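Hello forum,

I keep getting stuck at the same step: I have a sequence, I want structure tokens, and every attempt I make locally crashes halfway through. Rather than fight my setup again tonight, could one of you with a working pipeline run this one for me? It's a single chain of 592 residues.
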Amino acid sequence: MSGLGVDGLRVALGDTVALDDVSLAVPAGEVTAVVGGDGAGKSTLLRVLAGRVGAVSGAIRTLPQADIGYQPSTSGVWGNLSVSENIEFVGSSYGMSAKAVRARGDELLQRAGLADARTRLGRALSGGMRQKLGFVLAILHEPRLILLDEPSTGVDPVSRVELWRLISAAASGETAVLMATTYLDEAARAASVTALDAGAVIAAGRPDEIIAGVPGAIGMLRPGIAVPPRSWRRGVERHTWVPEGTPLDGADPIASPDLEDALIALTLARRAVADDEASAHPRRAARRASAEDAASPTIDEPASAAPGAVVAEGRDVTRRFGSHIAVDAVSLDVRAGEVVGLIGANGAGKTTFLRALIGLDRPDDGQVGLFGAPPDAASGRRLGYVPQGLGLFRTISVAQNVEFFSRVYGTPEIALPPSLAAVSQRVVESIGLGRQRQLAFALALGHDPELLVLDEPTSGVDPLSRARLWDVIHAQADAGRGVLVTTHYLQEAEQCTRLALLSQGRLIGAGSVADLTTGVTAVLVRSPQWQQAFTALGDAGLPTMLSGRAVRVAGVDVDRVRDALRGIDAQVEQVAPTLEEAMVLRETVPAA
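Reply #2:
Ran it on my machine without issues. Output:
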């Protein structure tokens, strides 16, 4: 098992070099992470090890199909089968007995929090529930190599904790786990990390080794300083990177950068060098440009709505699907010039409320309004909408999508940035997810909307592109537009003007980050045996979260944490709470 992995791997998909000289070891008993944004090559690497894609050159050391568990980025769930039928089908395909399938399936569904969803069809599950079921299907037959392609994308922070328990427990003994992810806090928990950018390795090793290997310096910009090009958003802060020998003007050094800061800095460093070589590698240069300017469309024309005016409003909105109440008397408004974040666990009702608010679905009870009137075709043309699925016609060309949207909104043809103009005659499904996301934003902003509605806009995006996209979002609010955004990245949520927290269809909290974290306590645990500490705290019934390889416990005091850690070497201290911890507590403890 110690020999699993690839050496000098080169893979070409048509004329595109998807992986170039990639080497990676996947040892047994560990979780190995591969990170990168859309188009970086993560999925291709996993598919090579799964035997689904061939290589041009390089060595591939993998296992027979029967010993591999593979979860694709699409979850691998059959939509027309129930949860139980998915389990039975996959189990039987691996030759498991009916008794073994029931026993193993019951255990995994219970641990994944899906035991009460056995009769629900796969297509009726929320995105996060589908991802968790996909993981269960991948490990059902107890494979020795588990390949997980972004298993936690679209999974809320609360559910990701339990999903990580399952993943870390699976990586034991003779079982190796290779996980692709865009969540760098998850990657920081892995034994080793390989970071890809445009098909090439930009960093590899233990997370602490990668952080220590960043050239130059990383700093936090001081207030009022002009924003340099090599900077990025981190919550309410802005960080910057400078090469070796360059002073950190206008910024204070960050003594202990995290993995996200390190990989953004390494990406910027690599692209700075690669810019000088772009003429020799035009295809790779195009891939870099597509990833980096995925959020490039900007609108200079200010919105017509008066600052602070209500541009969208829902009052006591209720939406039912049969006997299930998806949204339960939720009230929320969005005003010009602000960014409102809608957060909550999978199935909380975020997308359902959003669709009712803008008139795509009709609420069963309550009222919704856009720009002071009920939603209609005219008000719909005053908003820009990017749904989770991007809302593009994938079987027609980029240019035909542009023509269609221009006619719908009654505007002149929407101007495209150079990276999209270069592929305007290509079918959308062939241009890669990075450019597809860029196109969706260009179309949503192309008619100067007064309200921008974004449903999980940065899902699957690398950290640098995510920061660039938030620059665009803030530019829209600064121009006087209202912005409503749903997100599972709670660090992103901290950038919002206001937040609304949904749970099981109900609004259970609203306000700023400070409002939502008021009264919450948190304890930080650092231990060389962090996995053992994480397990012990969870077994004690404490609400635990992972922050890299540190463990955080919300809602309890230090003494209770120390009691649960008896016999484990650990440092324990009281710390300021995070939005994620406030969300966990509100999700797990019924509101008064």
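The first strand starts at residue 5 and ends at 13. If your local run keeps crashing, start a new thread with the error log.
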